[in-house]
Amino acid sequence: MKDNLDRMPEECGVFGVFGAKDVAPSLYYGLISLQHRGQESAGVVVSDGKQLKSHKGVGLVDEVFKDFASSQYKGHLGIGHVRYSTSGGGSIENCQPLLFNCKLGQAALAHNGNLVNAQTLRHQLEQQGSIFHSTNDSEVIAHLLSRASSDDLEGAIASALGQVRGAYSLLLMTEDKLIAIRDPLGIRPLVLGRKDDQYIVASESCALDIVGAKLVREIEPGEMLTISSEGLEWDNILYSKKRAFCSFEYIYFSRPDSDFMGKNVHTVRKNLGKVLAKYHPAKGDIVTGVPDSSLSAAAGLAEGLGIPYESALIRNRYVGRTFIKPSQEGRIAGVNLKLNVINSVIKGKKVIMVDDSIVRGTTSRKIVEMLKQGGAKEVHVRISAPPVTHPCHLGIDTSSQGELLAANSSLEEMTKAIKADSLAFLTPKELLEGVGVKDGLCDACFTGKYPVKMGCCK
Ligand code: AMP
Fold it and tell me: Which residues bind Mg(2+) (predicted)?
């Protein structure tokens, strides 16, 4: 049995609260602030100390929660999840948190990341009689937990996670405990916050800010935190010397107001722009960025080159992400719907346009065309990341290899394909310089060097 690594990964956000009288409002606000991590489905599970209750559905957080009767979901402990996946579809079965009963009692699970051996494990479990309700990796973890020989939850978790390989930032809850675990390489983020007597765990620190909590620290790679009425306990259950935090979290995925490894995401993006200015300068009259994810890098490049920054591209905030439109025609229309050019800003000018990444090339091609139609004399494209040449199997949707522009073309071909006057990317080494670290980042989508062994072999 081979794991199908061409299936699309899931991008998700998780949020958990312990200790409030009524956790439902915090769960809702926390998920709203993590909405950028997944727009396909949302859900929460709340415990009143006796019973776990779930509310989830397909759609944005606001849509899913419009019929949420919070009075029926009173509890001191809860977890929430937002999800986006192009595989498994948006069916209700794939919505999380996953609520299940096992020999250890009632439990719920919310997962961000992708397991690279999920298909193999699923096949083995099915051979042994397990019945699956969804197509997501998280259900594999639930089955492994319920089959573990250990009689306590912590032991069952250690045994289940000992069998999985890949990326996971995981929240688990029972009637009276909240457990947070991060994979041994720390691929996906997970932070711990505190507000009075409450503990909060979230994918990003921006979700702590919205509920008025302070960041305590990141959950360490391989660490399991257990929060109960006894307080907070932690244990390193999955040791690895290696670290592989996803560089795409810094480049594109996370919100600029979040911090990881003591570094603010906006500041890192701005540094990436400065590094672009240092190694890949261009001659231009103005620098502009593609709202929102490349604005920080564009500001850094403008500062580095000493060229004025201008807002030439305006985004319609009420249109969803172009990337998730299933057809190529839909994607192109999506860019038009989403962005417009202020012609008077660019007319007759040499424009340096910064974007955070080129995946299929749809966005850059369309924007160069729009800028030229708007009267730009030249358009020089600078990308604040290396070329994406390999798909991510660990939780970011970077498309399959055949669709990746950089996997199949030279720099010259890419420049032609997007019709730019010049094009430059960061190298993986320059990316490290911009982030301000020597190593410890996963750059598999740029190098093909995956931090975990791919496929079915242990
Ligand atoms: P593409 O148009 O296919 O080249 O995709 C690149 C554009 O999509 C850039 O403007 C990025 O900001 C954005 N992008 C990059 N990675 C992702 C992702 N995983 N999900 C959604 N959008 C993305």
Answer: 293, 355-356
